[in-house]
From TrEMBL, chain A:
The protein's name in its UniProt record: Beta-ketoacyl synthase
Family of the protein in this entry: Belongs to the thiolase-like superfamily. Beta-ketoacyl-ACP synthases family.
A Pfam family the protein falls into: Ketoacyl-synt_C
InterPro entries per record: Beta-ketoacyl_synthase, Ketoacyl_synth_C, Ketoacyl_synth_N, Thiolase-like
Coiled-coil region: none
GO biological process, one term: fatty acid biosynthetic process
Keyword Acetylation: no
KW Transferase (keyword) present: yes
Gene3D superfamilies noted in UniProt: 3.40.47.10
PANTHER family, per database record: BETA KETOACYL-ACYL CARRIER PROTEIN SYNTHASE, POLYKETIDE SYNTHASE-RELATED
Ranges of residues in domain Beta-ketoacyl synthase-like N-terminal: 22-208
From TrEMBL, chain B:
Organism encoding this protein: Wenjunlia tyrosinilytica
Gene name, Swiss-Prot/TrEMBL: fabF
Summary of subunit composition and partner proteins: Homodimer.
GO biological process: fatty acid biosynthetic process
Keywords, in A-Z order: Acyltransferase, Cytoplasm, Fatty acid biosynthesis, Fatty acid metabolism, Lipid biosynthesis, Lipid metabolism, Transferase
UniProt protein name: 3-oxoacyl-[acyl-carrier-protein] synthase 1
Compartment annotation: Cytoplasm
Length: 391, 401
């Protein structure tokens, strides 16, 4: 691994455009385990690998391993009361929100709860909840004999809505279906809400649950594109605020999201148009962050073994940043977790900062891409909490 | 900050496809509700929905292959096509610009997931069509719009349930206002399906034949579907290219009840209206028309009317529900409501609440524009959108000055 360039706060020009987002705390649950340390260990090569999931569901699975939280039970984290109807997706998101709130120095009280909101990413909500609902209309004695108490679970904004109730957050409450682009969409959306003054802080993150439906979706996607990555699951939620306001208050962020750029292009293919598109996003992200390619210490990529997409992404990254910048292939440790994957990329970088103070002030890039042609890149700067220079 | 205007409208609805047909439907108070055709409703006690029977995506989209995209994505892309045509902007010029899309939804492509669920019962999970599995992601709604129109900017799918189009419209407005984008397509899309029909029935929120918002005997929603798209650009841009300006987006408000997943909250909804007015720089007394969330459930309409009176006083502006005609088009609902309001601003009329028979003595006195569209000068309109999860979103539209 190459040494990161030494950076002081002065060496990074002021970003252009909307204000940078400060991350003042985060919570993560991934197949690597619960909390940043487990994730940092896994990306450092000390993870336990995918778990045996053969006992999790009655339905047949395409493979018996996944980066899943096999023993996860919501009641262990939030208690029994009021949690029995949460589906897995909602439960994972709620617990990640709780961890994020516990990790930040932002205090939620009656004076600010109307100004604190939630933005959570997804692919299609809890596909299991929606599919089970449809299934009941086919197999029950009468097609309408579905459980009304579970109806909200079948709708995509369930996790964000429940988290709003649970944590008493009355600010803007949004859900964004972005699939692999979800976390970058969420960051852009959150930056706008904060930059335009709709909210002063947000719980911004993304969720994906493991289920038979998700396992088969990963299987079909991977096998069509020559990959063999197991599925993953989990959630990561970040407390984001206006970076200028955080610093003005004398607080120290864990990270700053300096820029996020996204776009849609013709899907990855031999013409290279998609790579050019992703390269454009990446170049724009560096420009708007006010950093140069040689300042980038790490690229957390979306590589997942799907050859056509991996090659297109790698071509773009190489064209802008060169081939020497270390790649962090987070999905090797967390599996294919669709909308949670981008959140894991960000969480992995932050988790590593927390455990490695030598990386204080390093600049990293996150890239994302989809088979549909959506692409994006974010530029992030992070610090440890162990007395590092928080800028 | 730039001023933001709407210069193109693309409704795909059960009462009309395209701005002219949709406006005619609104003016005539057409009922778009009919017996369900897209799934076998045998065994369901209620069998009506607001389906768009005339939707022929293959005649509307040009770049997308209709076999590769779900019905909801095709609603979104088709509506976007209509909005761009209505805006009269050159397609190549648009593709070369900083342009994107922001679309709302409740169920996304859940009807694709429903089909796969049905298939799995016979073919097994290992016997599914991989191409169909790929279509399940709701992210594809906005991506379909971008791909159809070669837009290389943001593609965002806001899945905040039944207020999602208002979220999407608000976000698109901000992206243009702040200079982040030059053109945006904003709206929403949803499709009728078994699971939501069953869910609303079991929730006791479905009515049998006709949706009658604000009526004393209202008894629930009718599920509906469709697509809504609006073309947004800056005022300078619209003037520079000589575009016809339908309306201006003045601002919007968002908040969350943080109280109950399905029951609406009067105080929180009233507060959302105040936030929207403040952000838009308008006074309540300046609002000429409210396009209601108006689902037709006893709870929603009572709470909504009460919140309106809390904010507007005893003589609130006329408030009508397009859901009486369309059914509840879910993630498209506030988008189709916004388009109706834009048409009302541009054409000086108020869309009616059809199926209205008896005022509700237990509800604050409101004017639901019963049964007949009405000629009226609409300078400022308010579009209400509320949703599961207490996701409130209200957009304020104005006549361009």
């Amino acid at each position: 691994m190459t040494l990161a360039p030494e950076l002081s706060a002065e060496s990074v020009p002021a970003p252009t455009g909307p204000p940078a987002l400060a991350i003042t705390g985060f919570g993560v649950l991934s197949g690597a385990g619960i909390g940043p340390q487990a994730l940092a260990a896994a990306i450092g090569g000390h993870g336990a690998g995918p778990a045996d999931v053969s006992g999790m569901f009655e339905e047949p699975l395409p493979r018996q391993d996944a980066h899943a939280l096999v023993d996860f039970k919501v009641r262990d984290h939030l208690g029994r009361k009021g949690t029995s109807f949460f589906d897995r997706s909602t439960a994972l998101g709620m617990v990640a929100c709780k961890a994020a709130l516990a990790d930040t120095d932002l205090e939620v009280d009656d004076d600010n709860r109307a100004r604190i909101g939630i933005t959570l990413g997804t692919t299609a909500g809890s596909a299991k909840s929606t599919s089970d609902y449809s299934r009941d209309t086919f197999v029950q004695e009468r097609p309408y004999l579905v459980n009304p108490l579970l109806f909200p679970n079948a709708v995509m904004n369930c996790a964000a809505g429940q988290a709003g109730i649970w944590y008493g957050l009355q600010g803007p409450n949004a859900t964004i279906a972005g699939g692999p682009l979800a976390m970058l969409n969420v960051l852009r959306y959150s930056r706008n809400l904060i930059g335009c003054g709709y909210a002063s802080a947000l719980l911004a993150g993304s969720i994906e649950e493991f289920s038979p439906q998700a396992a088969w979706a990963v299987h079909y996607g991977q096998s069509t594109e020559g990959g063999s990555l197991p599925p993953g699951e989990g959630a990561a939620v970040f407390v984001v605020e206006n970076a200028d306001a955080v610093r003005a208050a004398g607080r120290r962020p864990d990270a700053e999201v300096l820029s996020v750029e996204v776009g849609v292009f013709d899907p990855p293919g031999p013409d290279g148009a998609f790579s050019q598109g992703l390269a454009t996003c990446l170049t724009r992200a560096l420009e708007r962050a006010g950093v140069t390619a040689d300042q980038v210490a790490t690229v957390a990529t979306a590589a997942n073994g799907m050859t056509r997409l991996d090659e297109a992404e790698e071509a773009a990254v190489t064209s802008v940043l060169g081939s020497d910048v270390p790649r962090l292939r987070v999905k090797e440790s967390t599996g294919e977790a669709f909308s949670a994957s981008g959140a894991f990329q960000l969480a992995a970088l932050l988790a590593r900062h927390r455990t490695e103070p030598a990386r204080d002030g390093e600049i990293s890039v996150i890239t994302a891409r989809t088979a549909e042609g959506a692409a994006g890149a974010a530029v992030v700067r992070g610090w440890s909490r162990a007395g590092g220079d928080h800028g | 900050m730039r001023r933001v205007v709407i210069t193109g409208l693309g409704p795909v609805s059960s009462i009309g496809i395209g701005a002219s047909a949709y406006e005619a439907g609104l003016r005539e108070g057409v009922n778009g509700v009919s017996p369900i055709a897209c799934f076998d409703s045998t065994g369901f006690p209620y069998y009506m929905a607001g389906e768009v029977h005339d939707f022929r995506p293959e005649d509307m989209v040009r770049r997308l292959s209709v076999d590769e995209w779900g019905r909801t994505s095709l609603f979104a892309a088709s509506a976007a096509r209509l909005a761009v045509a209505d805006a009269g902007i050159d397609e190549d010029e648009l593709a070369a610009a900083r342009a994107g899309s922001s679309m709302g939804t409740t169920g996304g492509e859940s009807q694709v997931l429903e089909r796969l669920t049905g298939d799995s019962l016979t073919a097994g999970l290992d016997g599914l069509d991989a191409g169909l599995v790929r279509q399940v992601s709701s992210a594809r709604l906005s991506q379909a719009v971008n791909r159809e129109l070669r837009l290389t900017g943001d593609a965002v799918t806001l899945s905040t349930a039944c207020s999602a189009s208002n979220y999407a419209l608000g976000y698109a407005y901000d992206l243009i206002r702040t200079g982040e984008a030059d053109y945006m397509i904003a709206g929403g899309a949803d499709s009728v399906g078994r699971w939501s029909h069953a869910g609303f029935y079991r929730l006791g929120a479905l009515t049998e034949k006709a949706c009658s918002p604000f009526d004393k005997d209202r008894s629930g929603i009718i599920t509906g579907e469709g697509g809504a798209a609006m073309f947004l650009e800056s005022l300078e841009s619209a003037r520079a290219r000589g575009a016809r300006i339908h309306a201006e987006v003045l601002g919007y408000g968002l908040n969350c009840d943080a109280n109950h997943m399905v029951a609406p909250n009067r105080d929180s909804i009233a507060e959302c209206m105040r936030i929207a007015h403040r952000n838009a720089g308008v006074k309540a007394s300046e609002v000429d028309y409210i396009c209601a969330h108006g689902t037709g459930t006893p709870a929603n309409d009572y709470v909504e009317a009460s919140a309106v009176v809390d904010v507007f006083g005893e003589n609130p502006p006329p408030i009508s529900s397009t859901k009486s005609m369309l059914g509840h088009t879910m993630g498209a609902a506030s988008g189709l409501g916004a388009i109706a309001s834009v048409l009302g601003i541009a054409g000086s009329f108020l869309p009616p609440t059809i199926n209205f028979n008896t005022p509700d003595p237990d509800m604050p006195k409101i004017d639901p524009v019963p049964n007949q569209a009405r000629t009226a000068d609409v300078r400022i309109a308010q579009v209400n959108g509320f949703a599961f999860g207490g996701n409130n979103a209200i957009v304020i539209l104005g006549r361009p000055s």
